[in-house]
Amino acid sequence: MTKKSEAVLNYHQRTKHTLQRYAKGPESIDWEDQPDHFRHFSGCEIVDLPLPGTELDVLFSALDTPEAIPVQPLNLVNIGLLLELAFGLSAWKQFGPSRWPLRCNPSSGNLHPTEVYLISAELEGLKAGVYHYVSHDHALEQRCRFSDNLPNASLYIGLSSIHWREAWKYGERAYRYCQHDLGHAIGALRYAAATLGWSIELLAEAADADVANLLGIDRIEEFKPSEQESPDLLCRINLGHGYTSATEINHRALDDLLAAVATGIWFGKADSLKAYHMYKWPIIDEVSAVAHKPRTVEPDYQAVASAVLPALTTQTASTLIRQRRSAQHFDGKMPAMAKAEFYRILSAVLPTAPAFKVWRWSPKIHLFIFVHRIEGLQPGIYALPRYHEALAQLKAGTLEEFSWQAMSAQLPLYRLHTGDCRQFAKTLSCHQPIASDSAFSLGMVAEYSNEINDAPWHYRRLFWETGLIGQVLYLEAEAAGYRGTGIGCYFDDSVHELLGFKDDQFQSLYHFTIGKPLEDNRIQTLPAYEHLFNKRA
Ligand SMILES: Cc1cc2nc3c(=O)[nH]c(=O)nc-3n(C[C@H](O)[C@H](O)[C@H](O)COP(=O)(O)O)c2cc1C
């Protein structure tokens, strides 16, 4: 094992919540002094995107066969829709004097550490260059103007994280949440693109240094020292579904982009995120440094079979994307969820489902499900190994007394244990009732230690995969007339003990729950972009 892998394993161990103590975080939080949720760069030209809110008539069920969706042209209107449906505001919430925005992509604690950049060839209304997306204003800030145009229709999205924005509330565990949020962001982008008949491909080969250079976040003098952005991911946007990812092509594409950036003119300086930096969490910088991604050779793009059980909704994709929310309470007396709905949701998270076409790596995450209220299924613990060969490993790694009874010819779903597991689902999820009052909750279990030993940056990739699964679950829950919530707070090793993991071959990296939401009528919901309509009127 290398020192770097060891450092990553140590970070993970150190940031576990246990029944006796939570991972290290701030002792007190000044809610009046939150970091600014929206980064702005002063000194850039602003490009207002066309006003948001357009309804599209593509059905959510049509996203199961995305190749059949009409391909929208590349223009500012559709770039605006792509960014809005992936990362834009979806509503404002108000409770007494407090008012806070929600977005189409979720974020742990609603802190949104993920920043979004667009790299574009010249279009009508947009010069070739690098832009930062400001979701509050639904506008682009031009950070770099290229001196030469990029090849026709080139469009990329880059993602980075401001770790400090998340650590402000969650302390040392925040680095994990930033990675979850990135996985959700990939998922959000995939659904938004599919709605336009477009698709996304991860440039999985890119090094962190490539991403930092392309997004201009290695220009460290333009950021406050503790408010730097860490590079994460780069995706190519395709009009249609002509996937081209192959290591050679992507390395060349990266080199061409780097050349364009090197001869471009840069503008602007990041404004301060304002809040007072009361606590310091150096472990986050340390793990971030050792989990650094080099340029890699990755398997060529392989088309996966799109197999998914039928969607049971007639709503449009854009409606469901904009209405996605996290449930804060569930109706513990809900009628049981229909088995067909449950099975559809599970089929949508298998690596063969359409949303996972974006995933360039082999699947490493499996689900352990606490069934509470599903028609025709006894409450208990179930498992969904996400590919067949993992079954034997998971059987060998878990409690001997688990029965592993196959439940369905359509899905790799197994019952391990029968019995009411509401109480321990809640206790394991930091005592949160959302894990027990739902139809089901689950833990996403990673093939862990071998992956980290292979390369420390795989730590991030495992979390990204859980976030992508989480985003599929959020939207599938809405489509079925239910609601989901991501659960980042759980007692790691108590989950492992319950399942019988004896070492760190497997680790649970993210939890999730789906049920019938109870609305808190004291909290008002307000339109997402009224401020913009007023401003631009
Ligand atoms: C990675 C992640 C972890 C989360 N963990 C929890 C949790 O433990 N408990 C909870 O009530 N909500 C949790 N949430 C939900 C967030 O609080 C929610 O996404 C955020 O407040 C924004 O609200 P929205 O999802 O309705 O847009 C989590 C969300 C994410 C993405």
Count structural domains.
Answer: 2
What is the approximate shape?
globular
**SS element count, helices:** 15
Helix content: 25-40%
Q: What is the total tally of β strands?
A: 20
Q: Which stretches are poorly predicted, pLDDT < 50 over at least 5 residues?
A: none
Mean pLDDT: 95
**Heterogens:** flavin mononucleotide
| Helix vs. strand class | alpha+beta
CATH T-level topology of the largest domain: NADH Oxidase
User: What's the level 1 CATH class of the largest domain?
Assistant: Alpha Beta
Q: Beta-sheet strand percentage?
A: 15-25%
In short:
This protein has 537 residues and is α+β, with helices and mostly antiparallel strands. The protein is 30% helix and 20% strand.
